[in-house]
UniProtKB/TrEMBL annotation, chain A:
UniProt-listed Pfam families: ABC_tran, TOBE_2
Family matches, as Gene3D superfamilies: 2.40.50.100, Nucleic acid-binding proteins (2.40.50.140), P-loop containing nucleotide triphosphate hydrolases (3.40.50.300)
UniProt protein name: ABC transporter ATP-binding protein
Family of the protein in this entry: Belongs to the ABC transporter superfamily.
From TrEMBL, chain B:
Membrane topology designation: Multi-pass membrane protein
Similarity-based family: Belongs to the binding-protein-dependent transport system permease family.
Subcellular location, principal: membrane
Entry superkingdom: Bacteria
Compartments (UniProt record): Cell membrane
Protein name (record): Carbohydrate ABC transporter permease
Keyword set includes Transmembrane: yes
Membrane-crossing residue ranges in chain numbering: 12-33, 71-96, 108-129, 141-160, 181-206, 212-233, 240-261
Domain ABC transmembrane type-1: 72-262
Length: 329, 276
């Protein structure tokens, strides 16, 4: 079981309110991703849930039990750190068994659980090595192993993949998703990488300056962003924002259109290609459109447009409308 | 990257290093040589570097005249005891300063260090009186306490420096894994800082072993360690350089051996963090 309820959780460091007050419910078994730019408070929020930081006010309930003032060890949560945080003086076996040893579990049960976790994570051949003798991906797996043997109420991941190279990151991302599907345990995952957020989450929590901007399923956020911040943050490349007469035509202060929702060929907008990137699967164009400004375009496949070419564009998908306060209309 | 030295420069720096090393070592060498001389040749003028009549008599006499094993044992108890007690107090203190520093932690560290700048004689009278009232005069426990207190700032400073090198996330991980504060210190922090703790221990044993102010002031016979043993040979009958040298050699030999065998650890510990 791992339902987590945050009620008016506030955290300040001295005079600075890092988290001015957050209400959030995380259902049992959910995969929730906290996403936001650097310094938005997502890691602090995770550390508050973990108990590694004390809340300034508000309450944290885990499975209906008030955990606000419980020490980390008593919350029944396991955490995977960005730096792996393995114990360098212990073998992989002892690293994974450490939480069980601290819980006073008998040796036979410890061994059984370590063996099982090692099998799941393909670490069986490395159990007698030290962390220093492992690759980055293997270390991350040990850190996950150490978390799963405890059979916690929820897993907390603090940017666990950011120290891995791109190829390994994709692999580990899938492994963590599969792990979630097989364990069905609540997972809270902090990242600044929105691809990770979109691909892994059941529910994304977008944070900005310590506040929740929007909570929802990945495609919900993509299709129905509540405000300019979420619209700009979710989606890559980011949404184009247009103000002025073009927006007024749609009865809005600002309109937003995603790069993948602009068609190249015929259309009302004309401009000159600045930068063009051709990836084979997609083409990315930066186009200076007359009367509108620069637009980013993502066209599928190969598009025959290069620096200096004049092209025509047309909106070919949803146009998002926002009022003067940046809220979606 | 080490800078390449020209052969001439290399020769010069090597010669300079040897010269400095010999200069530092010379008094020890002189003491050892003197301990094998007869009293007349030890005080001969002009001084004789090498004697014509080597003898072991000084050692035999020093051994016969005093209870060396007792002094030695007192030294061991006082040096090791004060160091271990110091570590027991310093490890949690340094943990707190390194991982949960307050606004005044830096000031506190500086203040502790500043106590080492005070001349010991400034607190001699109050400490002497306290020792007398508490019945701690000439007791090993009294010396363990006072030497522990004298060296505690150094122990805490050294451990603080080593602990600062340990990533806080690893300690947080142990907390998440269910370790209590003591579990964290015993299972994670101490083993990770072991090289640093070992050099702190060695250095403090050496400092405590060689301490010669409090050990002489606060002891007479029962708890007197080897530093007092040396001093006893410079007493009433006048100075007997050859015997004094023999006693000194016997007093420093154990710590010299310890230092020799642990020099790698000592150097590693003292440069910990400075060289990556």
């Amino acid at each position: 079981m791992g339902k987590i309820q945050l009620t008016r959780v506030r955290k300040s460091f001295g005079e600075v309110d890092v988290i001015p007050g957050i209400d959030l419910t995380i259902e049992d078994g959910e995969f929730v991703v906290f996403v936001g730019p650097s310094g938005c408070g997502k890691s602090t929020l995770l550390r508050l849930i973990a108990g590694l930081e004390d809340t300034t006010s508000g309450s944290i309930e885990i499975d209906g039990r008030d955990a606000t003032n419980l020490p980390p060890a008593k919350r029944g949560l396991a955490m995977v750190f960005q730096s792996y945080a393995l114990y360098p003086h212990m073998t992989v076996r002892r690293n994974i068994a450490f939480p069980l040893k601290m819980a006073g579990m008998d040796k036979a049960e410890q061994d059984r659980r370590v063996e099982r976790a090692a099998k799941v994570l393909n670490l069986t051949n490395y159990l007698d090595r030290r962390p220093g003798q492992l690759s980055g991906g293997q270390r991350q797996r040990v850190a996950i192993g150490r978390a799963i043997v405890r059979e916690p109420a929820a897993f907390l991941f603090d940017e666990p993949l950011s120290n891995l190279d791109a190829a390994l990151r994709v692999g580990m991302r899938q492994e963590i998703s599969e792990l979630h599907q097989s364990l069905k345990t609540t997972m809270i995952y902090v990242t600044h990488d929105q691809v990770e957020a979109m691909t892994m989450a059941d529910k994304i929590v977008v944070l900005n300056a310590g506040r929740i901007e929007q909570v929802g399923a990945p495609l919900d956020l993509y299709n129905h962003p509540k405000n300019l911040f979420v619209a700009g943050f979710i989606g890559s490349p980011r949404m184009n924002f247009i103000e002025g007469p073009e927006a007024a035509k749609h009865n809005a202060h600002t309109i937003g259109i995603r790069p993948e929702h602009i068609a190249v060929g015929e259309g009302p907008w004309e401009g000159v290609v600045g930068l063009s990137e051709h990836l084979g699967s997609d083409s990315f164009l930066k186009v200076a459109v007359e009367g509108i400004g620069p637009l980013t375009v993502r066209a599928p496949g190969e598009v025959n447009a290069h620096h200096g070419d004049r092209i025509r564009l047309a909106p070919a998908g949803k146009i998002h409308r926002f009022d003067t306060n940046g809220l979606a209309l | 990257m080490a800078r390449a030295l020209s052969p001439r420069r290399l020769w010069l720096t090597t010669a300079a290093a040897w010269f400095v090393a010999l200069l530092i070592f010379f008094p020890v060498l002189w003491m050892i040589l003197t301990s094998f001389k007869t009293e007349p040749s030890a005080v001969a003028m002009p001084p004789q570097f090498l004697s014509a009549d080597w003898t072991l008599e000084n050692y035999a006499e020093v051994w016969a005249r005093s209870d060396y094993p007792r002094f030695f044992w007192n030294s061991v108890v006082i040096a090791v005891g004060s160091t271990l007690l110091g570590l027991v107090i310093a490890i949690p203190s340094a943990w707190a300063m390194a991982f949960v520093p307050g606004r005044k932690t830096k000031d506190l560290l500086m203040w502790m260090l500043s106590t080492k700048m005070m001349p010991a004689v400034a607190v001699m009278i109050p400490l002497y009186l306290i020792f007398q009232r508490l019945g701690l005069m000439d007791t090993k426990i009294g010396l363990v306490l006072v030497l522990m207190l004298m060296n505690l700032p150094i122990i805490i400073w050294m451990l603080y420096t080593y602990f600062k090198e340990i990533p806080g996330e690893i300690l947080e991980a142990s907390r998440m894994d269910g370790a209590t504060l003591w579990g964290e210190i015993i299972h994670v922090l101490t083993p990770m800082a072991l090289p640093g703790i070992a050099s702190t221990m060695l250095l403090n044993i050496i400092l405590a072993w060689n301490e010669a102010f409090w050990t002489i002031v606060l002891t007479t016979t029962r708890a007197a360690p080897l530093s007092a043993f040396i001093a006893s040979f410079s007493a009433p009958q006048g100075l007997f350089y050859a015997k004094l040298s023999a006693a000194s050699a016997m007093a420093i030999l154990p710590i010299l051996i310890l230092g020799w065998f642990s020099q790698k650890q000592l150097v590693r510990g003292l440069t910990f963090g400075a060289v990556k």
